[in-house]
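Hello forum,

I keep getting stuck at the same step: I have a sequence, I want structure tokens, and every attempt I make locally crashes halfway through. Rather than fight my setup again tonight, could one of you with a working pipeline run this one for me? It's a single chain of 879 residues.
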Amino acid sequence: MTDALSKRNRFKVNRVDSGGGNSEEDGDETEKGNSSEAIEMGERPGSAASNDGERASSPTALLSEGTYMTMNESGQRTNAATKSLRYQLTREALPRLDNYRNILSIQAGHRPTLDELHNATIHEKPQGEKATEVVPDTFVKFGWIKGVLVRCLLNIWGVMLFLRLSWVVGQAGIGEGVIIIALACIVTTITGLSMSAISTNGNIKGGGTYYMISRSLGPDFGASIGVIFAVANAVAVAMYTIGFCESLNDLLKTFDLKIIDNGVNDVRIIGTITIILLTGIVVIGLEWETKAQIVLLAILIIAQIAFVIGSIMGPMDDEEKAKGFVGYSSELFVENFSPDYQYSEGKEHSFFTVFSVFFPAATGILAGANISGDLKDPQHAIPKGTMLAIAITSVTYVGFAIICGATVMRQATGNIEDLYNGTLTNCTEGCEWGLQNSFQVIELVSAFGPLIYAGCFAATLSSALASLVSAPKVFQALCKDKLYPYLGPFGRGYGKNNEPVNGYILTFIIALGCIIIAELNAIAPLISNFFLAAYGLVNYSTFHAEMVKPVGWRPTFRYYNGWLSLIGAILCVAVMFLMNWPTALVTFGCLFALYIVVIYRKPDVNWGSSTQAQTYKAALNSIQELVHIEEHVKNYRPQILVLSGLPSARPPLVDFGYSICKHLSMMVCGHIVKTPLNQRTRTSYTQRMYHWLRDHKIKAFYSLADNTGFKEGAQALMQLSGLGKMKPNMVLMGYKRDWNTCPEEELNAYFGVIHAAFDIYLSLAILRAPEGLDFSGLIAESYISPVPIAVSAPADRSAVPSGSLDVPGVVAATLKPSASTASGWSEKKANSQESLHSQEPSRFLCFSPSSNWRGKKSFKNKQNKKSTHACSCVSVWAY
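Reply #2:
Ran it on my machine without issues. Output:
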């Protein structure tokens, strides 16, 4: 009864009274209608703990009348009226709501472990323990409009829209010009679909493109693309700033104004001032940067509206007509529809050269994803904002191309007399106006020309701002993951928004250096290739995940296709080589170098990438195919099961087996433990042994059998180790040196293993070494880094100390090596449950973490050449 009362704080369910809930047996009126009392569910009714030793015949008998027997506070038995609990009276504990609450909630209770549930030892949360308070999220987060749509629009509506689009139409014509725009939009649309699929496949944190690629393809691909993407954005800041400076210089020329020379020096001065102001805006915070972006977007939209209105109004005077702007004309539309590629800017142009000039205009679709850590709901904002921005800008570029081709001539002299004489297109001496010659066509058509300059300024400054934010954000996420050395300070954040101030400073220095150089013509194609490489990897990430189909690949965005993503990746690579094949090779070289660095460093990260899933899938397919391949003697490979016990305790046996299997076949280290182990201990054994094997560069598997004897465990390992054709065909075990003194049952077990191997047609090898094979006496139970130890055999065996030797890095290391056993447990219960020290001391032992000590070195007398070793021998029986 005391035990029953002690469980009153265990799982409870509120009693529900049905009608008159009187106690039929005791007539206790205090129990009537008391709905606040709980029915104890800790033990089955009728058990010894709840009914003073009286056992009921069945639980259903106690519930036949809808009542349940329990104990009140005074120890008297009472019947509580209930609704049907017939199917809930089990020994398993019922669920508690507290265990399923959010663990970050203030009301969250103690969540029991599996061991606690199995052993019925669930404890209430200690009294007085303060619940963890949730720190309110004070970060400034953006929605899909301000965070993604506005940024993508500003980056895609770049200088290309106002300065080079008319030239593209003049060279390629309206027909092929629209094809060029459509091809670029196809690449960006496929990339946007792939990015939407990745961004909706789980939680997206800060880092944007880097985060998505690294969590999809792994740290090696993600780190390499993260570095070049951050560098590309940093240099792009300088490129956009110089574009702003050149547009401002052109405006100053129209008023005969200058600072120094209206050239490179003016660009450097204006650019330095501009980059300082832009850096100040982003350092203050993304709130100010977002407000500035909205103002710039408004200017851009007004400039576009002015262009459309101007095309409808037509030319205002003869001077505009002389410059080629004649208004909408069907004849002009037909004339400008076909391509007319001309020699321009030092080379003869074609479809692909014109495409390479235009495509950088479409490289702004990642502007919103790059600040994924500052979005309220990245899974919703990135797909919606990015795809809508691509649709809007695609329509804008196609519309502007058609308007330019339908209203402006390809060639025009700009001379009013030629307009009257009908020789306006006579360009024998060269023309300065028209689609093919002038970059001021958009300004010419606009209803108010200065608005186009304002649009150019807004486009360049907004792109510079976006790149100035993207580069530090991506680099901060990369540095936090510690994939490259010495980058930790750049991963530190400051302020309520965790701003990467150090990254802003680094980006400012890089951009300022490029502005002072002021020679970006050779770097611009490299930047475009860097962006294209990122697009290609985004597409390939989606394709790879779709083909491998890991369990974690469940994007909520459904409008994508794996094969379409592969086409997008191929298109990105093709465009890289079409734009500039030398820079494409440089891009791949940079990617490969950064990839090799990560592979060499082997960062300790596990993000569940699709490459891990591909490894499993490839291994599974290979094993399944191997099952159907008939064996042949020429392809025989010794696949060894080494009965080593703990591999770290018997390195000579493991190393001898590996010397046979190295680069040739499979080896399994079998470990048998007599006592039962819980799962945590089993996992610890497995992790430590694989760590030891990896540190000693031994490619082998580790298999543990517990709660069994040596013979039974060895039989289980022989029968169950491996998969398909990848299973042991040979057993390697140690020689039992104490066969004449050990208990008879141990000797029978040893020979039983030998017969068991023969019974299932396995080859058998027994290794005998003069010093024995068990060094567990010199190695701590947990895997530790070994150190060199040399032990000389004294003349008198009794002089060998059996105590501990204080050796750095070795805990309780004894001087007597254990006797060699194949079982992994002791013949005599001395210092360890698994092994006993032999009476014969070792003449030579060597452990070296630097040289990766191997057991086979103990067979060779390298340090004590004067001592004589008995020859190690191996007895082999094979079928």
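Residues 4-87, 103-108, 124-137, 780-871 have pLDDT under 50 and may be disordered. If your local run keeps crashing, start a new thread with the error log.
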